[in-house]
Amino acid sequence: MLLETEIPVLDNLEFLPYLDNQGLLDENLSGKIGIYAIFDQAKNLQFVGYSRDIYLSLKQHLVRQPQKCYWLKLQTIDRPSRSILESTKQQWITENETIPEGNGEQENLWTQPIDAKLTMTDEDKISYHSNDELGQIKFLKSIAKRLEVQILETLSDRGVKVEIRFNPKLKEQGLLDLK
Predict the structure, then answer these.
(1) Residues 98, 119: one domain?
(2) Residue 78: pLDDT above 90?
(3) What pTM does this model have?
(4) Are the beta carbons of 130 and 112 closer than 8 angstroms?
(5) Which secondary structure element, helix H or strand E, spans residue 76, and what is its range?
(6) Residues 75 and 131 in one domain
(7) d(Cα 163, Cα 34) in Å, to the nearest integer?
């Protein structure tokens, strides 16, 4: 457990596999408060974050950035304390000597819903704009579903067995985020 006076050195924490041998996230992290660092396959730091439910956050990051989530280091705390978590986050980023992509220019790719509209082809854009409002909503939903299939295939290819369910209401806006 993390106390205010003792911020762990990131290098001193053990690397943990993002997924276990069955392709699942560690269920013991469900409901746990803490800070985590996510690493790619080569163990390069990609993102540092904190959460009131580490399990749900790790699941969300896996869906958003499946090729960058292979290893993690983490520290839990008993009670939420934004100041402790933020201090630890800043220290870990400083220790890394460079800002991880996920905490810099690509932060939205790690922390915001996936925008399926960005995958629209020129033909898709023409079809979208030729529809009325209801038609546009249906079209955005179909674009989101198309991207959802691709994401689920990527996760399956990676061996992920975690149940993934996207929020159906957000699909109408062309966004994908876990329910």
Answers:
(1) no
(2) no
(3) 0.92
(4) no
(5) strand 71-77
(6) no
(7) 23
